[in-house]
Amino acid sequence: MSKFLNSPQLPPGTKPLPTQVAGHKYGDGKIGCLEVDDGTILKHVQRPPKGQRELDFYDEVFKSTDDNTLIELRPFVPEFHGVIHGEKNGGVAKHQYLKLENLIKKLSKPCVLDIKMGRKTYDPEASPEKVALEIAKFPPVMQLGYQFSGMLKFDIDKNKMVKYDKYFCKKLTEKTMVVDGLGEFFRQGKHYRKDYIQVVVDKLKSIETWFLNQKKYAFYASSLLFVYNASVDNTEAQDIVLCSEGKEEKLDSMEDKKINKDSESDINQTDNRLSEEGSDETENTSCNHSNRDRSFVDVRMIDFTHVFPSEDRDENYIFGLQNLIKHLQSLLEI
């Protein structure tokens, strides 16, 4: 408990977010992300200019506007619910927090992966020392265009949460990233959750479309957060049919099988066990795409302390995003 002695007092009704996998965490004078009783998250606003940049970014994205670039971006970032002021010193708020959507609040067996995007993870204001430091952190990023920042997974076989620290992340290479990195995250039992991988690929393609059309922002050291709920049955997990892009897609072993009414019922029962939200799903396979996808698997853009105005496409981010999509697609073929 000694590491918490120098940490600020937490706002009422909050506690350190147990599923935070990267960034500053509560302890040793840090605050990090906090879980709120009302089902949201508080993210501490860093000192200027980084904290102000992120606050300004959320303000701009969620303000009332007819700018299609901003409107189309909103589904890809956590919902923003304003700013919360913490304890005061002399009448002035000592800390500020972004109140954000909690993407895993209804996941009973959460799996969380933070992937930092781009070959360049240093912004235009970085000093030569900072540039050198960032390059040295993970040299394979120049070929991959992305890197793991942290991972936490509920392992069905072990029946417990397993944390993969920064040392695991740094050991990944261009050759091992697909199987030992992405594959490890989506592996449950002897199988990859190919149903979830396909949904993630579809979501990433939508984000890619946004990036290919926007010339408003350049994102540095920004991340993609992957979340999903671990399956309770490894065999049934291979036969789940998810709705993707408004269509029912047969995945994995189901490609050459006919789905009868009994198997459809089994699929729905499996989905219901994965999350409390399952009770809201329809009983047939013509499911609601947005509800089902977000109940069990989601991808969002996070961390915007290094977002800068731009007049060009963000090729740095696009390079990593397209590689990530390609690597995930390769898992579907294994």
Could you walk me through the main structural features you see in this protein, from its secondary elements to its overall organization?
The chain has helices at residues 50-62, 68-73, 128-137, 141-144, 166-171, 177-186, 194-213, 234-237, 261-274, 289-296, 315-332, and strands at residues 14-16, 33-36, 40-44, 80-85, 88-89, 92-93, 96-101, 110-117, 146-155, 160-164, 187-188, 191-192, 217-219, 223-229, 243-244, 247-248, 297-302, 307-309. It has 334 residues and is of the alpha+beta class.
Write a brief structural summary:
This protein has 334 residues and is α+β, with helices and mostly antiparallel strands. Helix content is 34%, strand content 23%. The longest helix is centred in the middle third of the chain and has 20 residues, at 194-213.
